[in-house]
Design brief:
The complex is a heterotrimer of chains A (323), B (324) and C (302).
Chain A: E1 4-15, E2 18-30, E3 35-39, H1 46-54, E4 61-70, E5 73-74, H2 80-86, E6 91-94, H3 98-101, H4 108-117, H5 124-137, H6 143-146, H7 156-168, E7 174-178, H8 186-203, E8 206-211, E9 223-228, E10 231-237, H9 238-243, H10 248-255, H11 318-322
Parallel strand pairs in A: 3-8, 3-9, 6-7, 7-8
Antiparallel strand pairs in A: 1-2, 1-4, 4-5, 9-10
Chain B: H1 2-29, H2 32-36, H3 43-53, H4 59-71, H5 85-120, H6 125-139, H7 142-156, E1 169-171, E2 174-176, H8 181-214, H9 217-224, H10 229-267, H11 272-281, H12 285-313
Antiparallel strand pairs in B: 1-2
Helix pairs in contact in B: 1-12, 5-6, 5-8, 5-10, 5-12, 6-8, 7-8, 7-10, 8-10, 9-10, 10-11, 10-12, 11-12
Chain C: H1 16-25, H2 28-45, H3 47-50, H4 91-127, H5 129-143, H6 147-158, H7 162-189, H8 192-199, H9 204-241, H10 252-263, H11 269-296
């Protein structure tokens, strides 16, 4: 049994401009100690899927269908007091911008200790000591001193470490990380990535790593789910996907990573933009930007063999395309 | 420390400028003699009185004498009461401060919860009622509102006295009418009247602050940590929206003291405001000038206090005035 | 997700004026405010033709009609729907005439204050340096005192009178406009189009009035609307306190003041109805201003 099992999840936003089907039938699963990367461009629904798991979808959004099973228990649309007990205790989340995730007017220790006290009874000195040790664990120097500092006294990378420490405090089974390195410098990105890898390995935590940047994924994630316009278009092990992407969109993503290209070759790019979230086409949602498009693409696409493309088996081999 | 000293120097300068402007202005109005001295007085009596009041000297001499006296705390005697002007004002200050304090308390204690509620639950009937009420409270002319309060609660219902200040009680060495039942009955209507406009302001600030802070990532992160809703609102949200509200309260306390003029006149509240209106009407120059200087001093003290409070609430602000 | 480039409907260029009007209409409360405002202004403008009596023509008043309750028919055969005051004056007529004066004072004072403040604010923002410091010091000094206090002092110095109160209101309000104009202009000044205009060698005044001014207008319009309401309220307050308009120019504040003494004896209408009129006027202006603020805020464009 998987730690997290999402089936046919539908999360829609009921706006005055129409129903936005941000997540439109997404399924994926994560096991303990495994890393799943969810890759897609902004607006693909990857973050909304993560927030749905956390029960953090605000009006006018709502989970309208599908199931989210956590450790065998159905948690989609769980009553909010029940959901609150899971959040921050068994499932943690880390957000994109470390400048914004910590409350600017509260000291770091306040923001850490309250996370423990929200979920279990522990004496204040014990909780404080645990927080300090966790800060040390995520690589913050002189944690004793830093506990009493305010967020603005930390750099961006250090703040993200604090956020990670907060996420780890209650030893969660699952961590959902929503682009946690996007806002950081490249060198810091690598450090954080490394840190996360080490931490989930040590604790046997499941990790969902949401990102728009495929280059981060290799050597880090076990599996990859590629999302486009509210759907998963391809799912594979990381190695398989990078070696032989099968969906045209995945190919486009990998083709646009500079290191994958041969020197001097033109960097591939995907023309155009995603279709509007209201009134999406009935057929393949990627068709308008796809170079392999034919008349058959106007029919709705099913996920077959983990690829949402009826021509997947007919496409030329990936190496030929690049050459 | 340097900051505080610089602020104090600015304050002294401001007080000087104000004293000059006011003195000049009032001087230009002309002749208190006509008002103070009965038309039937003989010429000899007039000359005597003018000399007594120092009104026969040239302008700059009058100002310099005035300035010298002010530095010794002497603003001259009121033409009308023939008593030291400063004393008259200080005597009435507690009543005004008490009224302004009561009004601020009403505005804050009611305004913050209502505004936060309206911000958290936009679109509900309750929050729309609150917001409609705040637009109304904002718009009702204060003096007319006072009349309506008197009409409904004093004349028609008879719940509260029409005017005046009640008995004064003593508590912890402070003498105030807030400590007696009779005093509270008397202060209720004037305080509410003075509070309503600010109540509306606090509600709006709290609401817009709540809506802005609520969509911030750190609130979402707080929810992701599994904190309870009350903790998120009281600790995370409130601390952040307090900054503009503290500013408003601090800044508007001075405004309340000034605006108390209207409320005090209508409810015959024996404070500084009623005194200044009477003095303006009677051209009682020393009292008007003394009142203004006192107000300037109050304003400066309040501004300093607000700055100090800021740095307590928002760790990002340090007293050098720079925001990191 | 509702990216403008993906939605063909938003691609069509639209005059901002139309967008503002269309957005404005979406809020029913604001439309009620606008309707109220139009009715009040029209009624005030047409007062001499639609009131049953000229309230300041003493020959048309009869002391026999004094303090009649609303709805009663007077000695002269007119029915007084809003009652009469202590001198037998029809309250309805008096209110419409009072509205005229209140509106006139508010609009004249506010418009002048805006022109003055706008000019000073733009000049301060554009030239910067010492001029900026001077103007803004003055503004800060000014704004650190509550409006009512400034007005009281000015009127204490100048005495009652129509010109004096307009002057006092201008002095009270110019600084608010100056501060906002400067702030908006400063944020606009750094924009590319101003730099572009400068590099094209356009003259300073051309940039100031041709480029900065139009971009400062939306927030100023909102401020202008709201400040008219506060000017009217302040004038009424001062007149009520007996330091504003003289008895020969009875604004709403004066009418309410005259009725105050009768409230204690239960003759509520002399104070209540002018107050209701004043309140409706201010609420209407504020409703419109509130909506304008939402509609003109670029962040709220959907």
């Amino acid at each position: 049994m998987s730690l997290l099992q999402i089936d046919d999840l539908q999360t829609h936003f009921f706006t005055s401009g129409g129903v936005v089907k941000a997540v439109d039938g997404v399924s994926y699963s994560v096991d303990r100690g495994k890393v799943l990367a969810v890759v897609g461009e902004s607006g693909s629904g990857k973050s909304v899927t993560g927030l749905s798991v956390m029960g953090l979808i605000d009006a006018p959004g709502r989970i309208v269908g599908g199931s989210i099973k956590f450790d065998g228990r159905e948690i989609a649309n769980l009553p909010s007091p029940e959901m609150r007990k899971l959040r921050g205790a068994r499932i943690s989340m880390i957000f994109q911008d470390p400048m914004m995730t910590l409350n600017p007017v509260l000291r770091v220790d306040t923001q850490m200790v309250e996370t423990i006290h929200a979920h279990r009874d522990m004496s204040k000195p014990d909780a404080w000591a645990l927080c300090r040790d966790t800060l040390g664990r995520v690589g913050i120097p002189s944690p004793d001193e830093r506990m009493r500092a305010y967020p603005h006294q930390f750099s961006g990378g250090m703040r993200q470490r604090v956020a990670i420490a907060i996420a780890l405090l209650n030893k969660p089974d699952l961590i959902i990380a929503d682009e946690p390195t996007t806002a950081l410098d490249v060198t810091i990105q690598a450090q954080i990535l490394h840190l996360m890898q080490k931490l989930v390995e040590e604790d046997g935590t499941g990790l969902v790593w949401i990102t728009h940047d495929l280059s981060v994924v290799a050597g880090f994630a076990d599996d990859v789910a590629v999302m486009y316009a509210g759907e998963i278009v391809e799912q594979a092990t990381t190695d398989a996907l990078i070696a032989e992407p099968r969906h045209p969109y995945s190919r486009g993503l990998i083709g646009s990573v500079p290191s994958r290209n041969r020197r001097g070759a033109r960097l591939a790019q995907i023309p155009g933009g995603a279709p509007p979230a209201v009134n999406r086409p009935k057929g393949c949602r990627f068709a308008t930007r796809c170079s392999y498009r034919t008349a058959g693409c106007d029919a709705p696409q099913e996920l077959r063999n983990h690829v949402r493309c009826w021509r997947a088996d007919d496409l030329p081999a990936f190496d030929e395309v690049l050459a | 420390m340097v900051y505080v000293i610089r602020r104090l120097l600015q304050a002294v300068f401001l007080a000087l400028v104000m004293s000059f402007l006011v003195f000049t202005g009032i001087f230009a109005v002309g002749n208190p003699v006509d008002i103070l001295i009965s038309p039937e007085a003989t010429q000899a009596e007039r000359v005597l009185l003018i000399a007594q009041l120092g009104l026969d000297r040239p302008f700059h001499e009058q100002y310099l004498i005035f300035l010298g006296n002010v530095l010794q705390g002497d603003f001259g005697n009121s033409f009308v009461y023939n008593r030291p002007a400063l004393g008259l004002i200080l005597e009435r200050m507690p009543a005004t401060l008490e009224l302004a304090f009561a009004a601020i308390m009403i505005a804050v204690v009611l305004g913050i919860p209502l505004g936060v509620y309206a911000g958290l639950r936009p679109g509900t009937l309750g929050s729309q009622t609150v917001m409609a009420g705040s637009i109304l409270g904002f718009s009702v002319p204060n003096f007319w509102q006072a009349i309506m309060l008197i009409m409904v609660f004093s004349v028609m219902l008879g719940w509260f006295p029409v005017s005046g200040r009640g008995e004064v009680g003593e508590f912890l060495g402070i003498r105030s009418s807030l400590f007696t039942l009779n005093g509270l009955q008397h202060i209720a209507l004037p305080a509410i009247n003075l509070a309503i406009g600010h109540l509306a302001l606090v509600i709006r600030l709290a609401r817009s602050g709540t809506r802005e802070v609520q969509s911030q990532d750190f609130i979402r992160f707080a929810r992701a940590k599994g904190l309870t809703e009350p903790r998120i609102v009281i600790v995370h949200l409130l601390r952040n929206i307090l900054i503009p509200i503290v500013t408003l309260v601090g800044m508007s306390f001075g405004g309340l003291i000034a605006f108390a003029v209207v409320t005090e006149s209508i409810f015959a509240w024996p404070g500084m405001g009623k005194l200044i209106i009477d003095s303006i009407r009677q051209l009682d120059r020393p009292v008007v000038v003394a009142y203004l200087i006192v107000i300037v001093v109050i304003f400066i003290i309040l501004n300093l206090l607000v700055d100090l409070l800021y740095s307590l609430i928002d760790p990002r602000i340090r007293l050098d005035g720079a925001k990191q | 997700m509702t990216d403008a480039t993906t939605n063909p409907a938003t691609l069509a260029p639209e005059r901002p004026v139309w967008r503002i009007m269309r957005d404005f209409r979406k809020n029913p409360l604001a439309m009620v405010g606008l309707a109220m405002l139009l009715v009040i202004v029209t009624a005030a403008l047409l007062a001499p033709w639609i009131t049953p009596q000229d309230p300041y023509d003493l020959r048309s008043l009869s002391i026999m009609d004094s303090r009649l309750a609303p709805g009663e028919v007077g000695f002269s055969g007119i029915s007084f729907w809003l009652g009469t005051d202590g001198q037998g004056r029809d309250m309805f007529s008096a209110i419409l005439y009072g509205l005229r004066i209140s509106l006139m004072v508010g609009v004249i004072a506010c418009t002048t204050a805006m022109i003055l403040g706008l000019t000073l604010g733009l000049v301060a923002a554009y030239f910067g340096g010492r001029i900026d410091t001077l103007v803004m010091r003055l503004v800060d000094l000014h704004l650190s005192f509550p409006p009512i206090l400034v007005a009281l002092i000015l009127l204490a110095v100048l005495g009652r009178g129509l010109e004096n109160i307009i002057f006092a209101l201008i002095i009270v309000q110019w600084a608010t406009f100056a501060r906002m104009a400067r702030a908006t202009a400063l944020s606009e000044r750094g924009r590319e189009y101003v730099e572009a205009a400068q590099s094209l060698g356009l003259s300073r005044s051309r940039i100031l009035f041709g480029h900065l001014l139009p971009n400062c207008l939306p927030p100023l319009m909102v401020l202008y609307t709201v400040e008219i309401a506060s000017a009217i309220a302040l004038e009424a307050t001062l007149s009520f306190l007996g330091v504003g308009l003289p008895a020969t120019q009875p604004s709403l504040g004066l009418l309410i003041s005259n009725g105050f003494q009768f409230v204690m004896s239960g003759q509520y209408w002399i104070s209540v109805f002018p107050g209701v009129a004043l309140l409706l006027l201010i609420v209407a202006i504020n409703l419109v201003g509130d909506r304008l603020r939402d509609v003109l805020n670029p962040r709220n464009i959907t």
